[in-house]
Specification:
It contains 11 helices and 11 strands. By secondary structure, the chain is of the alpha/beta class. The chain binds nicotinamide-adenine-dinucleotide (NAD) and (2S)-2-hydroxybutanedioic acid (LMR).
C-alpha cells in the first residue's frame, strides 16, 4: 500500500498534470521565508492567484505546517513545502519567479540598516541557490535593507556569471501602496483611483514620493506635501511602533508583494503596458541602483522610465535620497567582495 505521503504526492502530480493538459497559463513561484509574518499571508494570496500553477514554500522553520494548511485551499496552484538548507535546491529548481521575504524584521528604535548584519548573509545564501538552480527566474527581493540587499544579490549573481539586471527587482511596492492610501485620504478620493510614483529607495529619506506627478492630477499645498512626504517616508516606522516589538508590516506588505508579483507574472505572460515602481539597476541617476517606474515584460524589467519633471521640493529630496543611497549600495557591494 502506498504511504499517505506517496498518495499525497501522486494526487498533487495528478492535479498538476490535469491542469497542464487544460493549457491553463501557470507560472512556478517560490517563496523563501514562507513561514514568516510576511511569508504566510503572501503564500495564502499567491495560492489564490490564477497565474500560479506551482507554489513552493521554503523556510528554515515551520514550512511543513504552513504548506499543509495552505494546500487545503481549493484553488489551482499545487503547493509543496521545503524545510531547511538541504532542501533549498529542490525548492528553487524550475522556478519562474522567486519572492524573498526571509530575514529578521525591525523592532522600535532600529533602522532598516540595523538588520544588515543578519539579513545580508541570509540573502547571499539564498541568491547562491537561485544562481545554481533557477538562474533565469525573476527575483522579487523584500528582505531589508532593500537598498543594500539588492546590490548584494547582484554581486552574488555576477560571481556566478548569471546576472541579468532585468530580472532582479527590489520590492518598493509598499511605499506606493502607502502613498496611494495617504494621498487619497487627504484628497478625499478612493485609493484605487490614485497613483503616486515613489522613487529612490526603500528607507527613510531615500523614499521619495513624486507628489507633483500624482494621478489624477491634483494640487497639494506646501503643508500637505510635507505632511504626506513625511508620512510616506515613515510608514514602516509607524507600523513598527504600533506593533511595539512584535515585528514590522506583514499584512500590508503581503498585499503589496502580491500586487507586485502579479504584475511581474502578467509581464512574463506577455501583457502589454505593465508598469510599476521597483528598485533596480538603473541609469536614471548616476547611482547604479535606483527605484523608479519600470515596464515589466517577458524578460523582467524591460524599460526603466526617467523621473519626469520634479518640483523644487522634490529636487531637494532627490539630492538627500541619493546621498544616503550611495552609501547603502556600496555597503551591499562591499559585503560580497570583502
Ligand atoms: P519574520 O521574522 O516574521 O519572518 C521571516 C522569516 O524568514 C521567518 O519565518 C524565518 O524563519 C525566515 N528565515 C530566516 N532565515 C532564513 C533563511 N536563511 N532562509 C529562509 N528563510 C529564513 O519577518 P517578516 O515580518 O516576515 O519580515 C521579513 C523581512 O522583510 C524583514 O527583513 C523585513 O524588514 C522585510 N520587510 C520588507 C518590506 C519591504 O517593503 N521591502 C516590508 C516589510 C518587511
Ligand atoms: C516597511 O516599510 O514597512 C518595511 O520596510 C519594514 C520596516 O522595517 O519598516
Amino acid at each position: 500500500h502506498p504511504s499517505n505521503l506517496q498518495m499525497e504526492e501522486n494526487s498533487s502530480l495528478r492535479a498538476a498534470n490535469c491542469r497542464a493538459k487544460g493549457g491553463a497559463p501557470g507560472f512556478k513561484v517560490a517563496i523563501l521565508g514562507a513561514a514568516g509574518g510576511i511569508g504566510q499571508p503572501l503564500a495564502m494570496l499567491m495560492k489564490i492567484n490564477p497565474l500560479v500553477s506551482v507554489l513552493h514554500l521554503y523556510d528554515v522553520v515551520n514550512s511543513p505546517g504552513v504548506t499543509a494548511d495552505i494546500s487545503h485551499m481549493d484553488t489551482g496552484a499545487v503547493v509543496r513545502g521545503f524545510l531547511g538548507q538541504p532542501q533549498l535546491e529542490s525548492a528553487l529548481t524550475g522556478m519562474d519567479l522567486v519572492i524573498i521575504p526571509a530575514g529578521v524584521p525591525r523592532k522600535p528604535g532600529m533602522t532598516r540598516d540595523d538588520l544588515f548584519k543578519i539579513n545580508a548573509g541570509i540573502v547571499k545564501t539564498l541568491c547562491e541557490g537561485i544562481a545554481k538552480c533557477c538562474p533565469n527566474a525573476i527575483v522579487n527581493l523584500i528582505s531589508n535593507p532593500v537598498n543594500s540587499t539588492v546590490p548584494i544579490a547582484a554581486e552574488v549573481f555576477k560571481k556566478f556569471g548569471t546576472y541579468d539586471p532585468k530580472r532582479l527587482l527590489g520590492v518598493t511596492m509598499l511605499d506606493v501602496v502607502r502613498a496611494n492610501t495617504f494621498v487619497a485620504e487627504v484628497l478625499g478620493l478612493d485609493p484605487r483611483e490614485v497613483d503616486v510614483p515613489v522613487v529612490g529607495g526603500h528607507s527613510g529619506v531615500t523614499i521619495l514620493p513624486l507628489l507633483s506627478q500624482v494621478k489624477p492630477p491634483c494640487t497639494l499645498t506646501k503643508e500637505e506635501s510635507e505632511y504626506l512626504t513625511n508620512r510616506i517616508q515613515n510608514g514602516g516606522t509607524e507600523v513598527v511602533e504600533a506593533k511595539a516589538g512584535a515585528g514590522s508590516a506583514t499584512l500590508s506588505m503581503a498585499y503589496a508583494a502580491v500586487k507586485f508579483a502579479d504584475a511581474c507574472l502578467r509581464g512574463l505572460r506577455g501583457d502589454a503596458g505593465v508598469v510599476e515602481c521597483a528598485f533596480v539597476a538603473s541609469q536614471v541617476t548616476e547611482l547604479p541602483f535606483f527605484a523608479s517606474k519600470v515596464r515589466l515584460g517577458r524578460t523582467g524589467a524591460e524599460e526603466i522610465y526617467q523621473l519626469g519633471p520634479l518640483n523644487e521640493y522634490e529636487r531637494v529630496g532627490l539630492e538627500k535620497a541619493k546621498k544616503e543611497l550611495a552609501g547603502s549600495i556600496q555597503k551591499g557591494i562591499s559585503f560580497i567582495w570583502k
